[in-house]
Specification:
This protein has one domain: Farnesyl Diphosphate Synthase. About 70% of the residues lie in helices and about 0% in strands. The chain is built from 14 helices and 2 strands.
Length: about 300
């Protein structure tokens, strides 16, 4: 088996190439909008969500070519959310993935339209004829992504985050926020990757659901730790932003040492779930380990 580093690099390159194909060319009108869509989507990011989709597909025996549209759809939703989150009315950030944010490089109106267009393109990919051989499963995938992106998922979590700025949240409230804001799309990435090749057995789905919940929370805890400890250059975004804005984070409830220990507990739980798939689940396990070991 190839190393995780080699596998991850291949998955990232595959995602980059597919996104470059799916995104409208910057020579097509409206040129400025299409250029901006490519600016925010290409040439950066860890591509964790597409990697999760490919890994989940591998765990249940799906071919990467079957998973590719779903992997890109989830990434497009993620990039749209980052583009909108960076706006002055939201998190007001000027750096993302090591370069100026969309509204800084272009303007606020363009950033709004970029997010809207990326969201539409994500559903266009999933809904396209030939994306899945079973129409019922294809509809299920569309429903899953819509739910994950909406008010009971990512957007709802962001609303709670904004409303909680400057307030002290308990652990249950904080986890509710992050299960929606971050975890919902991570869950979607895992399930969409698994569904891309066909129907999913209930036992396998339950293990994938549990895996996704654990790593979704682990990812956010590590994000909070890295926001406090890592540099702007390492993160590719403004370090220390959460504390400066009075955002509720895990480090407002526990020490860095305890936060890292909690992350490891979550990752260990995720590894146990990935073990259900034997050798085919090894990439899911690799990603779980990467989440706790990463420096950015």
């Amino acid at each position: 088996m190839t190393s995780f580093a080699a596998w991850a690099k291949h998955a990232q390159e595959r995602t980059e190439a597919a996104l470059a194909r799916y995104l409208p060319a910057s020579t097509i009108a409206p040129v400025r909008l299409h250029e901006a869509m490519r600016y925010v989507s290409l040439g950066g990011g860890k591509r964790i969500r597409p990697m999760l989709a490919f890994a989940a597909g591998e765990a249940v025996g799906s071919h990467p070519g079957q998973v590719e549209p779903a992997a890109c759809a989830v990434e497009l939703i993620h990039v749209y959310s980052l583009t909108h989150d960076d706006l002055p009315c939201m998190d007001d950030d000027d750096l993302r993935r090591g370069k100026p944010t969309c509204h800084v490089h272009y303007d606020q109106a363009t950033a709004l339209l970029v997010g809207d267009a990326l969201q539409s393109l994500a559903f266009e990919l999933l809904a396209a004829p030939g994306t899945h051989p079973d129409p019922a499963t294809q509809v299920e995938m569309l429903h899953l992504l819509a739910h994950a992106a909406g008010s009971r998922g990512m957007c709802g979590g962001q609303a709670v985050d904004l409303a909680s700025t400057g307030k002290q949240l308990g652990l249950a409230e904080l986890e509710f926020m992050h299960i929606h804001k971050t975890g919902a799309l991570i869950r979607a990435a895992v399930l969409l990757g698994a569904l891309a090749g066909g129907r999913l057995e209930q036992s396998a789905r339950a293990k994938l659901e549990h895996y996704a919940k654990c790593i979704g929370l682990a990812f956010q805890v590590m994000d909070d730790v890295l926001d406090a400890e890592a540099s702007t250059a390492t993160l590719g975004k403004t370090a220390g932003k959460d504390a400066a804005q009075g955002k509720a984070t895990y480090l407002t409830l526990m020490s860095t040492k305890d936060a890292r220990a909690y992350t490891q507990e979550l990752v260990d739980d995720a590894l146990a779930a990935a073990g259900h798939f034997g050798a085919r689940g090894e990439r899911l396990a690799d990603i779980a380990r990467f989440i706790v070991e990463r420096s950015y």
